[in-house]
Specification:
Blueprint lengths: L14 H27 L14 H20 L28 H15 L5
Length: 123
């Protein structure tokens, strides 16, 4: 794991860890929904609509272009022609799956961040 990847606390034991976990879940939901909307609009980056058969660098450029075009569509209120679900009906997962505690620098970084940003100061 990389130190900049925030991993969930498997079993939060205090208020700071619980606040961190909730923030991580909310952030992950937003990121996953956003990526789902972009992959729906640009089927070439969705694994069921086709996969990018290019080098990682070229694929990253294509994904960046899709994100840029998506942002432009959103700013100009251009609807997604593939969207069949109203936004309020889109499924939301509220449990962080995967990563977890794996030790190493990612856990050390996380354990430094939690009290700094989620601990109660002056209380």
């Amino acid at each position: 794991m990389e130190p900049f990847l925030m991993t969930p606390v498997t079993n939060p034991t205090n208020e700071a860890e619980e606040l961190y976990y909730r923030a991580l879940v909310r952030t992950r939901v937003i990121v996953e929904l956003t990526l789902g909307v972009v992959k729906n609009r640009f089927r070439c980056i969705h694994r069921f609509g086709g996969e990018l058969q290019y080098t990682p660098l070229r694929s990253a450029k294509i994904v960046s272009a899709c994100l840029l075009l998506h942002n432009r569509c959103v700013s100009r209120s251009i609807p997604d022609p593939n969207n069949h679900l109203p936004e309020e009906d889109m499924p939301i997962e509220t449990h962080v799956v995967g990563a977890g505690d794996r030790g190493g620098t990612d856990r050390q970084t996380r354990d430094e961040i939690i009290p700094e940003f989620y601990g109660r100061k002056g209380v």
